[in-house]
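Troubleshooting entry. The earlier prediction with iron/sulfur cluster gave an output that would not parse, so I re-checked the input for stray whitespace and re-submitted. Clean input:
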Amino acid sequence: MDYSPFARPLYVMLKPIGAHCNLACEYCYYLEKANLYDGVPRHIISDELLEKFIREYIGAQTMQSVLFTWHGGETLMRPIAFYEKAMRLQQKYAEGRQIDNCIQTNGTLLTDEWCEFFAKNNWLVGVSIDGPQEFHDEYRRTRQGLPSWHKVMKGIELLNKHEVEWNALAVVNDFNADYPLDVYHFFKEINCRYIQFTPIVERIVEGDAEAIKTKKRSAKYKSLPHLANLTDDGAPLAEFSVTPEQWGNFLCTIFDEWVRNDVAEYYVLTFDCTLANWMGKQPSICTFGASCGHAAVMEFNGDVYACDHFVFPEFKLGNIREQSLVSMMYGEQQTEFGKLKTQLPKQCLACKWKFACNGECPKNRFVKTEGEYNLNYLCAGYKKYFAHVAPYMEYMAEQLRQELPPANIMEYLKTHKL
Ligand SMILES: C[S@@+](CC[C@H](N)C(=O)[O-])C[C@H]1O[C@@H](n2cnc3c(N)ncnc32)[C@H](O)[C@@H]1O
Ligand code: SF4
Ligand code: SF4
Ligand code: SF4
């Protein structure tokens, strides 16, 4: 078996059913990817390709533990038997390594059987839910416009019943962004201790802008608009995007409640990453890291792309049938892609928050500057957030440096101001 000579984990998310999904969330960046494989009748990974991927993926790791991430589209549209087969293959090629699995789902297809499977095999389940019903159902609907919140809540109940480890992914869009505490309290009420908030920032290729505007929200899409990528200059913003001000305000408002009541009880990934950067450690979300290009995706047919948000023909690294994962992940094209992250405008280079922000995701950098590189669209929001949390982060980082729990901040804030 080939072992990679590189000392960091290689990470490739798998799309076993491509972009196919039982929902048609209005803001979804992935649904349109089905168009890349228009002529292909079934967007399902073959047994042979699955085995090839699993063997190579495990063989390419330099670490003792290997993490598989199942992503979509809607992952639960493949049967349990498919994932059982994948686990058998993982064991076949594990050679003593520890294998972990996590799966991302919209939660609507969860059943007792699924939850038993996840519980029995210790899978970590990521569930997408955008907060209380009115916010969630604004955008997360079927093609027929039917809402999904009740089904997701039922799914969460089943996960809890079977004691499956799960976390929530909530996107922050033009609508729910104005209600940070309603969203945060909802997650606390359902006892969700791990929450990831992702800002929605999408642009639309010229020509599709009118089409999306004239479609009623949640109306049936015949074909999805092609959302713009980094190279489409001047593409208009999709109306469901969060504004920088909304994003900054959303984070600051939730932070104020979290830092006084919830540290170490609830984990909000953005706050976690900010503290990691304050400590000079590697944050767990790529967007706040200093470099990227380490996390690719593989489509059902073996095509490998630079990143889940760059599944465009120009960011295709190759196909696993023709090239090894190692050669694609460490090849010239992916190395160049990774450099996008460090190509920052003057504003970022001079910014006091650069160590915590790193210009965020290159996907969101489309604000023209006088210099060579674009500025991140969300910059104003991040400046507000970092300035707001700085004294608290400093306090928590100091606790950590003294090997004390950062949660001490809650006691301190009862009698002091920062
Ligand atoms: C593409 S979905 C695939 C897995 C599964 N169908 C689900 O909804 O969880 C993965 C995650 O991306 C989020 N997402 C969808 N569109 C997005 C966008 N335009 N920007 C950022 N995140 C988005 C979804 O809410 C979901 O949490
Ligand atoms: S459920 Fe997931 S893949 Fe399906 S449309 Fe919604 S965000 Fe996209
Ligand atoms: S381009 Fe954005 S989403 Fe992709 S790896 Fe880099 S920071 Fe992460
Ligand atoms: S806050 Fe703005 S200027 Fe500072 S690093 Fe982030 S994007 Fe750049």
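This one parsed fine. Residues 379-401 form the longest helix (23 residues).
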